[in-house]
Protein: Bifunctional metallophosphatase/5'-nucleotidase
Organism: Plantactinospora sonchi
Amino acid sequence: MRDSTRLLRPGPIFRRGRSALVAAVAAGLLLAGGAASPAASASPADDAAGSAGARPGTPVPVQLLSITDLHGYFGDYTTTVPGARAGEPARQVGGGAYLTAHLKQRQAGQRNSILFSAGDDFSGWPNETGWFWNEPTIEYLNSIGLDFSTVGNHEMDRGYEFLRHMDDGTCRWRPDNDICFTDSTGRRFHGADYDYYSGSLVDDRSGKPKLPPYHVEYVSDGRGGRLPVGFVHATTKLMSEEQMSYTPEGFDFLDEADTVNKYAAVLRRQGVRAIVAVIHEGFSQQSGAGYDECVNPFGPMVDANARITPDVDAIVTGHWHALVNCMLPDPAGNPRPVVEAANHGRLFNEINLQLDPRTGEVLRDRTTSVNHANTQDVTPDPETLRIADYWRAELAKRSNLPVARVTADLTRAPGDSAESTMYNVTADAFLWAANRDGRADLAVAMPGILRRDVRYAADPANPADVPGRVLFSELALGTVYDSGIGVGLVRGDVTGAQLDQLLESQWQQAADGTVTYRQMAVSDNVRYRYDLSRPVGDRVDPGSVRIGGKPLRLGSTYRIATLANNFFAKNATPGFTALFEARKQDRSLYNGGDALWRYLERMSPVRLPALDRATPALSR
């Protein structure tokens, strides 16, 4: 990210931040290719508290504090978690200000405390973060002193350039320059004060990691020296295996356990003996168990743990939003923590390691792990409250910005059972946006993706509204399904035959023979006829389909754009399967909500589109 050439060096990657100077001193040993002494030298002033004198042979404590899957939930948020143990009462939790307070309390008095995330920091649901492109989340994580983060699948929601923006603060991400907002201090967005890592996110041609795959943190040994703690990082391989909507063109995601083993071996060769794996892939446990228990654990990371080298002393996971805290045997039979601390700041995990001061090895029998609930019984952190208040106020201002005018109501059909003005405009918006940063021949808007209409009349509850005026909040905030979490537009290549199959999917027959019609809007450059007298699956006349005025050719290739979740089976609109095999998928920088907003803004004043894109054969 900041310097991808660092991956070519023979030694570990050192992050910027509070230990960078000490890391640079030790790097002289490690980057020379030789094994480093576990206790790297430091100046007498480097650790005044530590030089006060730990006894020789006294284990060196290291506190690992971690969160995962925050998804931008650092503002007001209240929910519950079960008790720490089965049968204990549920606990009220949530809110970034409480999370900050708990983290500070746990860090107090700790000489060696490392705070990190297992990924999915942003691309969250709260509007005050999502509609400033999660820049507020980075401000919050900077404010709590996050040391580093592993890349999750949502870090790639809008492609590698989006992640570069969040990490480096580059302001060249969006084609409409809606980016780099002013933060709560009056400063322009500058990116994360910490680094993102992943060894399994690789270029699909060279096979080389696009980010640093591992790094070393240095901790005080209490006697004026430092000990290395290595971290290896991986992102869920399901980004490739299941063609999740977040996978950008040109990248691949390797097996997590293989990735960890590869870079753990590199760290061992360089003299690092304490190694932690941070993996954005998860696991869970038996329903009804407590958040600090491990009852019949299951899932990918249970299987991966059995394959990950015993050189790794702890595994911190994410992705599943699960509440589980295990000590599982490594392949040599020695227990090690394998943990996941929920999501949205409901929990955080604390692993306490004890290092042998002579060798730097983790004393496994002294390792402890606990999941802590982010309870609301502490004084909320005032700095976090200030940041959250600022972004809520900014959202309120943005929500009332007029962005377009309409000449009449844009409405949906009841049950999406007919062509409608709201869906036609949305399909047009998708095609327009898809061609702003890529190319598409047509676009479709699937049934069920729109949550409301756009009305000509003023909202009587909003004094900022007037007839015909459309506000930002009416388009961008919740109009298109899931637009706030980064479910963006994806383009892919389909054959004419697959496109014909997609049109036929609008009629779906149940086991009892009943047929349901769910209208799929097509962009204005598409026309076709259908015949209800024909059987389901053969109602669209392929010879009637026109794209850009030209007849559909079943063997030709067409580039189609729609919301990402319809390109893969997991979250697709039921019954619409023709896009599952779309090739050469790539992701637009627009999602559904901002595509609609920017399109109507450009077309203002917006007139009703004609309802003539799909016509019955009898009307000829």
Notes: The first strand starts at residue 60 and ends at 67. Confidence is low (pLDDT under 50) at residues 1-52.
